[in-house]
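anyone seen this seq b4? input:
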Amino acid sequence: MAKHDSGLRKPYSASFLPGPMRFACNLIGGIILSFLAPVVKILLFLSDKLLFSLLGKTYVYNVSWEDPRVERQVLDLGRQDHVLTIASALDNVLDYIIDGAKVTAVDLNPCQIALCELKVACIKELEHKDFFAIFAENDCNLLRSVYNDRLRQHLSPPSQTYWDANIKTIKSFMYSGASGALAFVLFRIIFPVFGFGFIRQCCEEGTSMEDFQQRLLPYTGRLRLLAWLADHILLYFGSALAGVPQKQLKLGHERGNTFGVVFDNILFQTDLCNDNYFFAGYILGGYKDFNCPRYLQKEHYETMKANIQENRLRLFCNTIEAVLKEEQAKSSGVEYTVASLLDHLDWMDHNMINDELSTLLPSMSPNSARVFWRSYSDDVHSPILAWLKPKQIEMYPANEPLRSDRVGMYFSSWLATVVAPSTQVAKHEKTAAKIQNKKGNLTVDIHANSSADGQDGDDDDTLTLSPRVRAWDAEDAKRLSKNPSFFSQLKTGAQIVSFPIRKKITHAISSVRRRKRNSSADQASKEHGDQMEAFYASQAEGYDSFREYFLHARQPLLACCPIKKNGGMVWVDIGGGTARNLEFFSPTVLKEAFSEIYIVDISPSLLAVAAKRLKKHGLDSLVKLVCADVTSPTATEGKLPPAGSVDLVTFSYSLSMIPDKTAALQTAIGLLKPDGEGCLGVADFWATSGKEGTLPPLLRRLRKAESFFHKAWFKQDGVHLLSEDMMKKVTEEFDHPSPPSSPTHGGSDGEADNRSSSEESASGSSDAGGLKLYGQNLPQPKETGVESKLHLIWQERFRGPVPLLPFLRPYHGFFIAVTK
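predicted toks r here
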């Protein structure tokens, strides 16, 4: 069937207006959007508050908004599978149950669990006719007539409490819950206002796809306007009711025409009236027997009931991580072959993703395990997920004219195989055996670990995920308390603010002395060291507690740093000061993962704090403290590892304080192992978001003025905010004598977008000459046309507040790059 070109994927514009009028409209719109920016920020904040306030009061999702057809195509579930997933409204869970899989479904909202338990109770007690009448045709009177005598006994006490209070008032499952209420407003009120009432009639009659689209084509102008309104208004006012947090929406911020694409996906790339029950159900207010989920279809009902009666479903009201930890603590022996995580990874920051996956992977089957997730992002949205080397799922299967995903609101789906498939166990028998004996820190993606020449890769080259910690013990946690006293913050803040005055005095004195001595470059370096020591000496003890909620990009950087499975790594932390960066790894992980760690800092006072801390936790033999200026070859001679021998180099809010950033980066890159074996990570302050060009004209000028103010403010303390020019030095200045066989990978992130750019090959297999990290092939990078020593794997930036100065919200960010 030929596809119609709906034109919905083109952003809505006033192109039909005369030139001067169009210019005036764009100018007025830009000014309005600029002045409304603070109001939008408030709405975004309140939206998430509203969403999370719904938990425990009502269920958010009355239907599951993920198409199980996609899972059926890529997972091929059977009775041998045990699936760990999110419960949501149970629709997808029941689809897995029909295929015979055992399912453990988890949800944090007790009201979602109440809805799920009610469905299970109905399956156990009712025939298909009555089950369909309740959940497809909204016969709530029938539900009430059987609730007390037949259904209530199957519910847990919390679910009984919920339905005892709500069973008398529910009128329609299709329009119940937060998302159901939003659907009613959108499809039963807004759509008819825009003249789309005929769509309901088409769904009722089962109009053919060809006839429906022919009838819809004259209305594409209205659809484009509606898409623009949805992008600019509905996302701010309605996302909470739809169960979409702002963190997830930010992943698609740069698309600019999200709903135009969504409308095209739904209306022109699927058969809405006959094969898209997600939207037809909302438009009609119920399901038709020819357009409904599989669990409502008569031919699957008895199979589903039998599997439910066999107790092949477990429901938990908790987080996935909590359920897994409880099972692991009990040594229950529960193993999962599939983790179907729906879209909930979009809700998480990098640290949360790392914590969940590092808890999940040890509970996965040692023979074959797969992790599947969807995303609102076009790309893998965290480097932690990139280390899994997932394969992107094609939404248009071969020789199929229509989308397999009928929801149309997810922009990518991913599948990662985290342990060698059974067909390859013999090939990697040694590796698989080691995995089974190392349940606490399971290695990812063994099967793709082959070298560029096609030979089996070294087992030592594989990566591992390990949980991060916030402190090494209770005393350290208290030191890093989220609520340091106001006077403690004020004291440290005063020392920082007053430093420019003290610096000018000491600088004047040292300048006189230097002129008398005819000072050399090394003496200038020593002067910089003296200034930094003067800056830090008085605040060394309170350094970490003040900066814990000031250096916002440090934790995500360290959460995303990859670790070798078999240890032996060498880490150089430049500007590591008090050893705070090491505290994000437990002492056990540090000892297992690293053979040597170097903390290089120019301040003896900060290193003295580190020495006490390391000795207390038995890490003083592992960690070497180097007091030197990293830009001075003579100062670091003999104190650092040999060139080309280091696995990981990090700068955590130190590069911005080093005057000669080029020299610092040259030193760092020179230390790293070549050929994808070395990794550079930088977290710091940034002058801009890198996306100012996308802002309205007035807001762009305001941002430029704000950036100038930020740079002037931080410069007083010797902090020079990182710039785009500095990033060019990373990717362009350090030329490599021979170009790589794969292009350079670039990822960038603006104020409201937390995602990378990654283009995985269709097969997800190891390709000769591909980009590697620790011997593993990474997603193929984007072409920049520049030869350098580094591949930029990840970059993102975001705003973060300054303690005691809420008006000051500079950009923070981090990037990760690997050697070629």
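Residues 420-460, 733-787 have pLDDT under 50 and may be disordered. The first helix runs from residue 19 to 53. kinda curious what u guys think
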